[in-house]
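[job 4471] stage=fold_predict status=RUNNING
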Amino acid sequence: MKSIKHTPTLRSTFAVLFYLNRSKKKKNGECPLMGRITIDAKVAQFSCKLDINPKAWDAKTARMTGKGKQATDTNRYLDHLQNNINTIYRNLVDKHGYVTAESVKNAILGVGAKANTLLALFDEHNKEFKLRVGINRVQETYEMYLLSKKHLKSFIEQRYGCDDITFSRIDSNFINAYDFYLRVDKAMKLNTLLGHIIILKKIIRRAINQSLLRKDPFVNYVAKKPLKQHRHLTAEEFERIITTPLISRTLSFTRDMFVFSSFTGLAHADLKRLSEKDLTQKADGTWWIKINRKKTGGESTIRLLDIPLAIIDKYKNERKSDKVFNVITVGCSDINLKRIAKACQIERNLTFHMSRHNFATRVTLNEGVPIETVCRMMGHKSVRTTQIYAHITNKKVAEDMRLLSERIENRYMMPKEDIPEDFKRNQFYLIDNKVK
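[job 4471] inference complete, writing structure tokens
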């Protein structure tokens, strides 16, 4: 097993070890990754907040095996974490002359050196989050936390005239004032505002968990929520996207990527990572995508229909690497989609993420695919997540009721003598009970 030893004095030994807690194996077969600090035979353990497949773990080196992205990112994270632990240990030794395994663990977890102000706690959260970027978190979310902290800092400076604020001053008035600041001073739309409020709630929960706050200031806060809008295209809008001629090759490529994702459910980040090895052909001649989602690590297994197969073939000769498409950034894609919407006379704010909603509602659920199957294809770990994307349309309700009508036809009828003449064709009586 790989461990690092450090001996600042003759009487002190120090070692760090990473290992899998195989006794707490999860349903997907992965095990929690743990850290163990040993000083003078005293042990302190902590969670690394990662789950690892035991088959990809080398207990001798205490690192993941292989050269894939997950292994590379995880091993880089562990190297960084181990260096951080070593630095904390040396600093504690220099400062106090004597250090325990528990004190090193507490320093890593931020226990015992609690942030006493809101923005300091926010910084603590962001530093921890950054360590997980590329492992089980994405850079875009990290940047959103940075932006939210920036807004919060501006609000505190403007309203309270200081760089930070203590938790004793955070109450319901503070929350309502921040809501007003985002809504009026920053002129944010409701969805954007709620995103920053949710982030602040997370930091407040962290403060409560660390006993920095006794009372939740959000208890009486009620946010005005925007009306929910269907984020999938209508059948007519989707048809326009597919069939409208586009002169610009750049817009045509963006449209094709949007349509491809609408027929596969791939998020932009996964479409960008899609490589030739993710495409497999089965014995019956059908082609499939099998890929682990970048955001959650969940597996997506999707059959390729005629349209996505045609799009793959269209750009086959333009590949610059093993990647199936030379995908542009999501920002550029969203800008192009706004131009495409104008060309297609669609009065909607098109974004690339809408393609996943199209897949869930327009392409699959609306055509009779069970939601459990949609969940598997989209790489969700819970059907509850899929329900956010999937919407029952009137067409689907009508089709389901038509099928029901066919299944129970001639099964139920009302006695003829009890039926008014005008309604005989529309009522039923129970044949099973032989009522005549």
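[job 4471] summary: The radius of gyration is 29 Å.
[job 4471] exit 0
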